[in-house]
Amino acid sequence: MHILHVSALPVWSMKGEGGMPSLRQTLDGHLRAGHRITLILPGYHLFADGAVATVKPPDARLETTLAPCRWIPAMLQLRGLARRIGGGEPPYLARWLLNFTTWILLTASMVAVGLRVRYRHGKRFDLVYAHNQYAAIAGWLLGAIFGVPNVTRLYGTFVADLMKRPLVRLRYPVAAGGFLVPHSLLICCNDGTRGDQVARKLRIDLAKFRFWQNGVDRPETLPPADRRALLTEAPPNLRVDSSWVFTCSRLSYWKRIDRLIRAASHCRAAGCDYQLLVAGDGPERARLEALARELAMEPHVVWLGAVPHARIWNWMSAADVFIIANDVTNRCNPLYEAICAGLPVVSLRDPSTADLLVDGENALLADRADEGDLGRQLCRACGDKPLAARLRQAQQARAATFQTWPQRMEMEVRELEALAAGGRSRRMAGGTGRVSTV
To answer: For residue 356, which of 378, 336, 341, 374 has the smallest C-alpha distance?
Structure first.
């Protein structure tokens, strides 16, 4: 197949080294199966704090074209102004207008570039694959114009808790549109945000819906726990003799690194000797660093910045504990990787991880609203070595249930190949319209 990928999300957004491994793994899975990819990306990061230009992925196998999207910097300035007016979060009406306008402008930009690639450069496609709800309309329109199936890929959703409110489709058109825009196949990540419930409530045709958990990009053997080697990659306040509590994520508000810092201060007050190692970067970093200073936690919080994904395993191998306490869901790739690395996990009581984390068996869980409780569980994980050893041992059984990324992508590729074959059969039979069924 020749697949046209249109993505609202950059590939490896964090300095070319991290950000969204699931997007990168999707592209790799399609290439590994022998298929050809043309990739269209916006010229600027759509969700950055400022005008961050997109860098083409260095992989020569990806035929990448950047849509200029010169309107994005102005839109980001407006979003920043709305945040200041709203005291941190844009007022609802401003947010609605900004999101909807961004959706329409991105659609126009992506479709224009897709048409140029198809007709000026003479490329023919068997399938259009849209990443994220912001690219969904562009994927549908290009599929319709080219007469080929279109796939929408969603990396989670935030509307599950909002579905009981009236007029959800109107109030959250972009988030709902990811499900509602016509598609030949809709793939939604099972990341704890309950996309399957949203699909049912929005009455999506479940024959064209796939609800799949991400794979895990795990090495055959973990790297050695060489702490002294890692000191060369870290800020000078990292101490080799302390307990290392590791977390990794984009520094966005809903990841709640602030909750981890406050829990760490409770734990520190109890006399635990450990450091919180934070891998990742993002818009919340300055605020989080200020919070660490305010709580006198600067010596005990180590900001690793954007870490190349392959190096995450080295940090997990050397760490003593993994901690995660997100707001929306804690079922995500870093948790899968921590389990595969055999790390004791400290987290929240969260329905999204109920089948992965059992309190006292492979994790220590705290009440969401009690940062002191999270700190106490962290102290237990760091200070009780026999308990930590039992938690580590129990992770092996959990890790055995995870698919690798190649296994996850083989499953997807089979579906896409069948979809494209059906589209070709219809075209050969004389139909030139859009294929809308699996």
So the answer is: 336
User: CA torsion angle for 261, 266, 272, 276 (degrees, to 10)?
Assistant: 0
- pLDDT at position 438 is 32
Rounded to an integer, what distance in angstroms lies between the CA atom of residue 235 and that of residue 238? 6
DSSP annotation of 270 reads T
- Domain 2-215+404-428, what fold? Rossmann fold (3.40.50)
For the segment 90-112, the average pLDDT, to the nearest whole number, is 95
The pair of structure tokens assigned to 282 is 């993002």
Sequence ranges of the domains in the chain: 2-215+404-428, 227-399
Quote the CA–CA distance of 363 and 84 in Å, as a whole number: 39
Backbone angles phi, psi at 183, to 5 degrees: -150, 155
39 beta partners = 5, 64
From CA 125, how far away is CA 291, in angstroms rounded?
A: 50
Quick one: pLDDT band at residue 328, thresholds 50, 70, 90? confident
d(CA 101, CA 91): 15
The helix/strand/coil state of 189 is strand
4: Cα separation from own chain's centroid: 21
CA 419 to chain centre: 26
Q: Which residues contact 60 (CB under 8 A, 6 or more apart)?
A: none
Distance CA 264, CA 256 (A): 13
Q: Specify the pTM.
A: 0.83
Q: Which residues of 171-202 are buried (b: 16+ CB within 10 A; e: fewer)?
A: ebbbbbbbbbbbbbbbbbbbbbbbbbebbebe
Q: What is the pLDDT of residues 182-233, one digit of tens each?
A: 999 999 999 989 999 999 999 999 999 999 999 998 888 889 989 999 999 9
Instruction: Decide if pLDDT at 432 tops 50.
Output: no
- What's the CA gap between 12 and 23, in Å, rounded? 8
Question: Fold identical between 2-215+404-428 and 227-399?
Answer: yes
pLDDT digits (tens, 9 = 90+) for 356-368: 999 999 999 999 8
Task: Print the SS3 string covering 112-132.
Answer: HHHHHHHHHCCCCCCEEEEEC
> Are 249 and 285 in contact, with CB atoms under 8 Å apart?
no
Fold of the domain spanning 227-399: Rossmann fold (3.40.50)
